[in-house]
Amino acid sequence: MVDQGKHAWVVRLLKAAVCCVLLMLAGVAQADGTLIGNYRDAHAGDDQAKVLAEAWSAPMPQFDPTRMQVFRVGDAGTWVILRATPPWTSGGRVLSIHNPGAGRVTLYYGPNEASTTALDDFGPPLHGHGRLIFDIPASVPASRPLLLKLEPTSQGPGAVTFSVESWPDYLRDDASWLAFATACFAVMLTMALMALCFTLILRDMTFGWYAAYLVCYAFIQGLKTGYVFHPLEMQMLSGLGDSLGMAATALSVSFAALFMLRFCKVDDYVPLLRMPVLAFAVGMPVIATCQMTGLPLLVDTAHLLLQPLLLLGALLLLAAGAIAAARGSRHAWFFLGGWTPPLLLTAACGAQLQGMFADAPWLPDVALAVGAVESIVLSIGLSDRALTIRHDRDKARQLADADPLTGVLNRRAWTESALAMLEEGANRPVALLFLDLDHFKALNDRHGHAAGDRALVAVASALRHELRPNDLLGRFGGEEFVALLRGAERENAVQIATRLCRRVSRLDVHVGNHEMLTVSIGVAVRTPADTVQSLIERADQAMYAAKLGGRNRVVCSGPTGPTLVRSKAAPSA
Question: Where do the TM regions start and end (predicted)?
Answer without folding.
Answer: 177-202, 209-229, 244-264, 276-299, 305-326, 333-354, 366-387
